[in-house]
TrEMBL record:
Keyword Cell inner membrane attributed: no
Top-level taxon: Bacteria
This protein's UniProt keywords: Lyase
SUPFAM superfamilies: Thioesterase/thiol ester dehydrase-isomerase
EC numbers: 4.2.1.55
Residue ranges annotated for the MaoC-like domain, each copy included: 24-124
Pfam families found in the cross-reference section: MaoC_dehydratas
A GO molecular-function annotation: lyase activity
Protein name: 3-hydroxybutyryl-CoA dehydratase
InterPro entries named among the record's database cross-references: HotDog_dom_sf, MaoC-like_dom, UPF0336/Enoyl-CoA_hydratase
Amino acid sequence: MNCPDPLHGYYLEDLKIGMSASFTKTITETDIVLFAGLSGDTNPLHLDADYAAQSFFGQRVAHGMLSASLISGVLGTRLPGPGAIYIDQHLSFIAPVHIGDTVTATVTVLEINLQRRRVKLETVCSVKGNVVMTGSATTRVTRRPSHNLPPNPSK
C-alpha cells in the first residue's frame, strides 16, 4: 500500500484498523558498514567475520537496529506516511539477519485515538516469511484540514 499523497501521507480520518504497508530491502555488506559508521556500533559481531565465526551466531549478523530502521521507512513514507511523527517503538528481536537476507518490514494499524491523534501500529520484520523482529509503534498523525473534509450529508 502506498500513501495517497506522497507529500503528506494519510490523514488521521483516512486510517482504518487493519490497514497495512510494507517495505522490502536486501541487506548488503555496504549497509552494515555504513550503519556501523552512522550509529557508532562497531561491534565485531557485525564487522569481523573471524570474530563472528566464534560467536553464538557463527557468522556476522546485521545490526538489529538496521532492520528496525526499515520500520521507520514504512512509517515515514507509506503508512501513515509523510507528516506522521514517530512517538515510540517497542521491539523484540527474535532471530538474526545476515548479509544477503531480504528483510520485509510491515506495519499494521492496531488502534486509532482520534482525540489524541495517535495511531498504534504492529511492527514486524521478516526474512523468507520467518519473523526476525516484532513490536509496536505509536505515531501522531495530522487531521484532515477542514477545507478538505467531505461535505456533511446531514446539513
